[in-house]
Write a structure and sequence with these properties.
transmembrane helix, EAL_dom, 2 domains, 405 residues, 53% helix, EAL_sf, EAL domain-containing protein
């Protein structure tokens, strides 16, 4: 507008020319401004296109890398790799198992040395190959027995002269071989330092009450050992052998029940161990007396089970918490124990909260086979032989007069 006014008054052009000059100048300015905006827009678009091109390049390289990875994975033989991994895991498991067994052996050796005062010489087993089988009475049932009977006088003399000794044999967990508990093993000392095992001084039947007296003493001393172990900060479980002889003595059983009932810590760790054959032959009165022990919390362990085709649900209801089977027979003749595969037997028994203990382990190969079959507990001479009870756990001399009870 100022250009037109200047041209009209300063240059003397006509009004129409001044308007034309003004319009031309305005149009020129508009073109110049529009060009500036266009160049700035084109520059901005060029930058954005360049950035997009860079992003596309990155995406293309990523796709190339992913394509290479997919091709690599597609060429891998998964089956061979899985076999290699499984082989490595198996080797590693073997190494770990051997290491755990070595550590457990050291721990068990230390525990056995701490528990033992001295290792007594074991007596030579007697030759019974030419002895005819006898039958023994158990309650109201007659049971076949392949060993000769021994006179009750051997036990009576041992009690009178204080020659009865208590030994402990550990039961360990597998594979770590930590101590689950101990069997209380009675032995009779003889001149010359020899010891008689239970089979050599315990007769199959007794009408004098001597066996009941012995078993009452064992339960009392077992409770005493558990109590003193708990007091010393070394809690342990104890498996005490009994028979129908003790269950026939009502007065003795009632005294023991009152003794054990007075200490709840003892009842949880005390297990009465009886041969499964004798347990099955108990009469009604004997089972009723045994159930009195179960009611106060004492557990039952069935020793020398003839078969694992048992009603474990019913046994658990009757207080049975552990069963013992022979290791060699389980390995050599598994069908004589169960119709299940060996690896499934322990899980089947454990399903009813009953522990399976493999007894009479005599060599390391047996332990390896038990590990393969997932057996939880084991016991035997190879693991640890019976060792004398520490005097501080007994709390008294091992001299027992036959008139003590």
């Amino acid at each position: 507008m100022s250009v037109g006014i200047t041209a009209y008054f300063g240059l003397g052009v006509t009004l129409m020319d001044a308007l034309l000059v003004t319009g031309f100048f305005a149009l020129t300015c508009a073109v110049v401004i529009e060009g500036m905006f266009r160049r700035r827009t084109e520059k901005y678009l060029a930058q954005r296109v360049s950035e997009i091109a860079q992003q596309l390049g990155v995406v293309a390289r990523t796709n190339e890398i992913m394509s290479d990875q997919v091709n690599y994975l597609s060429n891998i033989n998964v089956n061979n790799r899985l076999e290699d991994v499984e082989s490595d895991i198996s080797v590693l498991g073997t190494v770990v198992r051997e290491l755990a067994e070595a550590v457990a052996e050291v721990e068990e050796t230390q525990a056995t040395q701490a528990m033992a005062v001295h290792q007594a010489e074991e007596p030579r087993p007697r030759d019974t190959s030419n002895v005819a089988p006898l039958k023994r009475e158990t309650g109201s049932t007659t049971i076949e027995d392949q060993s000769t009977d021994v006179p009750i006088s051997i036990l009576q003399d041992a009690l009178a002269e204080g020659r009865l000794r208590q030994y402990l044999q550990p039961i360990v967990t597998l594979p770590h071989r930590r101590t689950l508990g101990y069997d209380l093993v009675p032995k009779v000392a003889q001149s010359g330092g020899k010891l008689l095992n239970a089979s050599e001084f315990l007769p199959q039947s007794d009408r004098t009450g001597t066996i009941a007296e012995l078993e009452q003493m064992l339960v009392r001393q077992g409770a005493n050992i558990i109590h003193r172990s708990n007091s010393a900060g070394e809690p342990t479980s104890l498996f005490v052998p009994i028979s129908y002889c003790l269950l026939n003595d009502t007065d003795a059983c009632e005294q023991l029940i009152e003794l054990v009932r007075s200490n709840r810590a003892v009842t949880a760790s005390l297990f009465l161990m009886m041969d499964e054959e004798r347990y099955a032959a108990l009469n009604q009165d004997q089972r009723a007396m045994l159930s009195q022990f179960v009611k106060i919390g004492v557990g039952i362990c069935l020793n020398k089970v003839r078969s694992l085709r048992l009603n474990f649900q019913e046994l658990y209801a009757r207080g049975v918490r552990y069963v013992k089977a022979d290791t060699q027979r389980f390995i050599d003749k598994p069908q004589s124990y169960s119709d299940l595969h060996n690896a499934d037997v322990a899980d089947f028994v454990q399903r009813y909260d009953v522990g399976l203990i493999m007894d009479n382990v005599v060599q390391e190969e047996q332990i390896l086979m038990l590990l393969d079959d997932k057996i939880p507990f084991a016991q035997g001479e190879h693991i640890a032989p019976p060792s004398p009870v520490r005097p501080d756990l007994l709390g008294e001399k091992q001299r027992v007069q036959s008139s003590a009870y």
